Design the sequence.
């Protein structure tokens, strides 16, 4: 089987490309390298530098390679940035994905896996969050992904494109073999920021809000290892190949940890005191986001291999201290 991975030089796309290669598939990557890094794209893939909204390039790729399906990661993904530039998010995420789906329809590519997000749920009414929870995103990033999800049934009905939209919770960690990891500039995510303190790149961790309605006052999140997430994509493709119905699926471990609990684990893993500085709440942060992963386990047969929070932090820590070897 041969798959097109958009954003395959990014954090989640590169790990998924590794998982596809390990499963014996061939991989073609399309990445414009605005936030991705050529060094993260695995050896042995065909690589194209370009935009997902470039219809001519997509047609060329589909004509050159017998693509069995598309895994679509290329996107803007910063909630804060989306609050300042909603149009940029609707164009890059929703608009360019319409171009990609249209090119797939024209070229007869009929399987699609979308990198979606827990941000589609907004402030949850119920935790753990099941997939049938109402979708009411509170930021343009979440809405840009929800709009893609809303387009998909039409591409299925009219063009026969079968799909899975995977709603990620908090993705963290790095390839246990050190081949890829998180490399964002600027870095906004909790675990890499905490580790930057341990590494001496930051003086302290800014803790955004300790007055949430949670046991220790800090936000609770569901952290999922990026390699477990990558495995779920391979299973989603298998489910589509086995003619399971299209649909949405949460990906999270189903267990929540507060910001303070994450910091405490990171202190144990790194042996560094990791000083904190209390700061006001970050706009748009829900107090608690934890997935129900019943559908992923029952319908995809997904079993996390690195579900333990310490293991997630350890792999991220190994990557953070060695990524310089890759020139990153
Ligand atoms: N946090 C800090 N200090 C930091 C960074 C984060 O206190 O330096 C806190 C945040 O306020 C939040 C928690 O740590 O309470 C987790 O923050 P992240 O930025 O790591 O992750 P988010 O939960 O904000 O975002 C993730 C994904 C988004 C997705 C969102 C769904 O990265 O793409 O979940 O709500 F949209």
Sequence:
């Amino acid at each position: 089987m041969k798959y097109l991975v958009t954003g395959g030089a990014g954090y989640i796309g590169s790990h998924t490309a590794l998982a596809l290669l390990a499963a014996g598939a061939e991989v073609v990557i399309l990445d414009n390298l605005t936030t991705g890094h050529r060094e993260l794209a695995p050896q042995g893939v065909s690589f194209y530098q370009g935009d997902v909204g470039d219809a001519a390039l997509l047609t060329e790729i589909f004509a050159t390679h017998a693509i069995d399906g598309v895994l679509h990661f290329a996107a803007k993904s910063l909630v804060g940035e989306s609050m300042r530039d909603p149009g940029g998010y609707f164009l890059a995420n929703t608009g360019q994905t319409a171009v990609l789906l249209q090119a797939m329809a024209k070229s007869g590519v009929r399987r699609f896996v979308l990198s979606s997000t827990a941000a589609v749920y907004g402030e949850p009414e119920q935790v753990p969050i099941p997939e049938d929870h109402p979708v009411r995103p509170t930021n343009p990033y979440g809405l840009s992904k929800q709009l893609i999800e809303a387009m998909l049934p039409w591409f299925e009905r009219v063009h026969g494109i079968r799909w899975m939209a995977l709603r990620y919770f908090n993705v963290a960690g790095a390839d246990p073999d050190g081949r890829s990891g998180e490399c964002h500039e600027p870095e906004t995510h909790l675990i890499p920021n905490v580790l930057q303190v341990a590494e001496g790149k930051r003086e302290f961790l800014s803790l955004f809000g300790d007055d949430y309605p949670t046991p220790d006052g800090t936000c609770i999140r569901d952290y999922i290892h990026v390699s477990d997430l990558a495995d779920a994509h391979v299973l989603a493709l298998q489910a589509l190949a086995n003619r399971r119905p299209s649909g949405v699926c949460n990906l999270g471990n189903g267990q929540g940890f507060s910001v303070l609990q994450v910091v405490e684990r990171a202190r144990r893993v790194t042996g560094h005191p990791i000083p904190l500085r209390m700061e006001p709440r970050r706009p748009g942060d829900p107090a608690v986001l934890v997935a129900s992963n019943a559908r992923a386990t029952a319908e995809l047969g997904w079993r996390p291999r690195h579900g333990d929070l310490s293991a997630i932090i350890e792999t991220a820590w190994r990557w953070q201290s060695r990524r310089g070897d890759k020139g990153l």
